[in-house]
Design brief:
Strand content: 15-25%
Number of domains: 1
Number of helices: 6
Number of strands: 7
CATH architecture: 3-Layer(aba) Sandwich
CATH superfamily: P-loop containing nucleotide triphosphate hydrolases
Low-confidence stretches: none
Radius of gyration: 17 Å
Strand order of the largest sheet: 1-3-4-2-5-6-7
CATH class: Alpha Beta
Structural class: alpha/beta
Shape: globular
Bound molecules: guanosine-5'-diphosphate, magnesium ion
Mean pLDDT: 87
Length: about 230
């Protein structure tokens, strides 16, 4: 807790906040999502990108989001409430993964439409976390998603790309993947992430925390430039 360790103190706060995550509701379809006043952070990405694992790691809850070896399983939107003392100050939305080859074409198209609708019309959407496998980088479907949210990003929607499974890359491969995706993401925030090695976990937690609590001064100037 000394001034020489500002990042750790800040990360502790952010991780403590994320740890409060609790299941709120699940919606099989967009129209079943409750209208909410509280800021929403959506997690999106291809099936198998490591989304469930990432949510579980950030919230430090092993079974919050269902992590599965069978991709393409999660078909509904799951919401989790965040906030201390039972007060909800944000909601995490776990969106269905896309691009899984074995899903029938009709179901695929339906879900692409649902995703686009959600990203365009969800009023309380404050931020999007896009996960992609660091070995694959941004794929065509990720690009489509970026296009869909671009107008909202220009209007202040926060946006972070997490390059997952970073433990599968060596240093130079990681640096290369990072710089390519930084270019593709048009200057948006991009970072490496590994649930396995706990790489980038604190950094991602801090980013989410600052999105929702911009008014609270931070001990980490890098995470909250003023
Ligand atoms: N090596 C490694 N594997 C991971 C990591 N995160 C997830 N995985 C694996 O990737 C697969 C898909 O993960 P999951 O979270 O279910 O992906 P989702 O479909 O995007 O929700 C699982 O076998 C995970 O164990 C990571 O940081 N490192
Ligand atoms: Mg999943």
């Amino acid at each position: 807790m000394t001034p020489t360790e500002p990042v750790r103190v800040d990360a502790k706060l952010a991780l403590g906040w994320l740890h409060t995550a609790r299941f709120l509701t699940t919606a099989p379809q967009l129209e079943h999502l409750p209208a909410l006043d509280v800021a929403e952070i959506a997690f999106v990405g291809r099936s198998n990108a490591g989304k469930s694992t990432c949510i579980n790691t950030l919230t430090q809850q092993n079974r919050l989001a269902f992590a599965s070896k069978t991709p393409g399983r999660t078909q509904s939107i799951n919401l989790f409430s965040l906030g201390k003392q039972g007060l909800t100050d944000a909601v995490l939305a776990d969106l269905p993964g896309y691009g899984y080859a074995a899903v029938p074409k009709q179901a695929k198209l339906r879900w692409q439409r649902v995703m686009a609708n959600y990203l365009v019309s969800r009023e309380n959407l404050r931020a999007v976390v896009l996960l992609c496998d660091a070995r694959l980088g941004l794929t065509e479907l990720d690009d489509i998603l970026l296009e869909v949210i671009r107008p909202r990003v220009e209007q202040g929607l926060h946006f972070l790309v997490l390059l997952t499974k970073a433990d599968k890359l060596n240093r130079s491969e990681a640096a290369r993947a990072l710089s390519i995706v930084q270019l593709q993401a048009g200057g948006g925030q991009v970072q490496m992430f590994s649930a396995l090695k706990r790489q980038g976990v604190e950094q991602a937690a801090q980013t989410l925390w600052h999105w929702i609590h911009p008014q609270i001064p931070t001990a980490n100037p890098a995470a909250n430039p003023t």
